[in-house]
Amino acid sequence: MVQTEFARILADPLESSRQWSREGHKVIGCLDSYIPEEFIHAAGMIPLRILGSTANVTLADSYLPVFAGKLARSILEQGLCGDLAHLAGVAISNSSDAVRMLYDLWGRHIPQQRAFLIDVPAILEGETNHRVFRQAMLEFKGELEKFTGKPLEPAALRHSIAVFNENRRLLKDTASLLGASPPRLSAETYLDALLSGFVLTKEKHNELLGQLLESSRRDTPERTEDLTPLHVSGPILVDRSFLPLLRQCGATMVSEELGTGSRYFWDEVDEAGEPVEA
């Protein structure tokens, strides 16, 4: 079953990327949603969203305070412990103070691994901020070209945008099954499907999502009439362990607005015109 495959993937989120590295592929770790993964894909590399770990943080506590948050501290812990040594580099934005600090710490304490900084503005609205954001994207594109030693071709970027847009559409279809009445997916399966996409190639994730949609539309809907439907909103959520607790309290998630959920995949990239400007 595809649900079992998602759970297997998340049991060791870095295993696929370690295999890619062994096969000679360059893998770039992405720390947040401001990273234009299509650029990395079009450059012939594989973007990997670093999800951190639920393990205790020890080494990173010497460099990041507790209020920096568990996610940033656990990602630095993985870097310091060598768990991310198979990555060709990491891409970091200044989306928050904690994430921005990771760029400096990476260069100081993990200098053997290339760290890219994407200097996005704190606020995206407005002409000036759009101009600053565009410049940050162009600078990142230039850095990728220097790193790979070859130009990022428009045709390759158009192809990557199409692959990622297909992924967005499939995820929206998956979300519609979660919100159906009755739901065609459990909240646990939905989150597993979402998070697996961060640690798989988009091509493989698209294949698995297609299988999930087909089986979910065919199978008998889950009985949730006794559970209170909830909408879950927040930034980054990589730990699904709260879902069984919701069920114990008589509730379940039927929709979400998460930084690692619909806010990541809902808006498609324009496939017409100049691909870099999209």
Structural commentary:
The protein folds into 2 domains: 11-155, Rossmann fold, CATH 3.40.50; 172-265, no CATH class. Helix content is 48%, strand content 12%. It is built from 11 helices and 6 strands. A 4-stranded parallel β-sheet has the order 2-1-3-4, sandwiched between helices. The longest helix has 25 residues, at 154-178.
Which parts are unreliable, with pLDDT below 50 for 5 consecutive residues or more? none
**What is the residue-mean pLDDT, rounded to a whole number?**
93
Q: Reading side by side through the largest sheet, how are the strands ordered? A: 2-1-3-4
Question: What is the architecture of the largest domain at the second tier of CATH?
Answer: 3-Layer(aba) Sandwich
Q: How much of the residues is beta strand, in percent?
A: 5-15%
At CATH level 3, the topology of the largest domain is Rossmann fold
Taken together, the total number of domains comes to: 2
Structural class: alpha/beta
Count of strand segments: 6
Helix amount? 40-55%
What is the string of SSEs from the N terminus onward?
Answer: HHEHEHEHEHHHHEHEH
Termini distance? 37 Å
Could you name the CATH class of the largest domain? Alpha Beta
Biggest sheet architecture: 4 strands, parallel
Principal-axes geometry comes out as globular
Provide a count of the helices.
11
Gyration radius, in Å:
19 Å
